[in-house]
Specification:
The protein is of the alpha+beta class and 229 residues long. It folds into two domains: 135 residues; 74 residues, Trna Endonuclease, Chain: A, domain 1 (3-Layer(aba) Sandwich), CATH 3.40.1350.10. It is built from nine helices and six strands, in the order αααααββαααβββαβ. It has a four-stranded mixed sheet. Helix 3 crosses helix 4, helix 3 crosses helix 6 and helix 6 runs antiparallel to helix 8. The longest helix has 31 residues.
């Protein structure tokens, strides 16, 4: 904001440049915290930020068993959280990991993996990579925005994403109002033209097949996008 960067392109120009404090900030904050094993922690968080969110995917990316490191990142450092589909038991293995802090999600996705480009002074390439992947990154951020918005509005008693074991059906946001006995299903897209409510309704039938005790709830279906912010 001090640089007058009020648009995405100006923000990227401010972040990915020679004198940017952001390029080193993640390293400065976490290296001392993690100690000599910081490389392993950084690799795990980079894998999660890049979309490898299942335990097996993270393990394969890092090339070693990561169970103890994931536990520390979640329980000791509070930097990641293990997510399960809404209404699933916490002990289920049907889970994924996500980075909780927005800054670190961005830093590990767009900065850490490209630090070699900083040494080459190729800030233009770093910006290009960020621009290329920004839609996917910001789409996930939009889902979290609406979760936070609903939490502040105290509209529901619980909410989260839901997905099936095969990964064939995923609902961006399922919001439960236990008091009113209502479930609201939302598809979250940057572009409202990409919202397909018929598809959302079809996915809800898979959801109810896995959660038959919830069939008595009243339901609604809606889309959320940038104009709804």
């Amino acid at each position: 904001m001090d640089d007058g960067a009020f648009t995405r392109k100006k923000m990227f120009a401010s972040v990915f440049c020679r004198d940017s404090p952001y390029l080193d900030e993640g390293m400065v904050i976490l290296v001392q915290e993690f100690g000599k094993e910081y490389g392993t922690y950084f690799s795990i968080m980079s894998a999660i930020a890049s979309g490898r969110t299942e335990y097996s995917q993270i393990k394969n990316e890092v090339g070693m068993d990561v169970g103890a490191f994931l536990a520390k990142l979640e329980n000791e450092y509070g930097l990641i959280r293990r997510k399960v589909p809404i209404f699933a038991e916490r002990k289920t293995k049907h889970s994924v990991y996500e980075i909780g802090d927005c800054f670190f999600r961005f830093w590990f996705r767009f900065v850490w993996r490209g630090l070699y480009l900083k040494e080459l002074q190729r800030f233009d390439v770093m910006r290009d990579y960020a621009e290329r992947d920004y839609k996917v990154f910001s789409g996930k951020a939009l889902e979290r925005y609406f979760q936070w918005k609903f939490i502040e509005e105290a509209k529901y008693t619980r909410m989260d994403a839901w997905w099936d074991r095969k990964g064939e059906n995923e609902i961006d946001l399922v919001c439960d109002d236990e008091v009113a006995g209502r479930l609201d299903f939302f598809a979250v897209k940057r572009d409202p033209r990409r919202i397909d409510l018929d598809q959302l309704k079809a996915k809800s039938q898979v959801f109810f097949a896995k959660n038959p005790a919830l069939r008595s709830r009243s339901v609604s279906f809606a889309g959320l996008s940038l104009p709804d912010m």
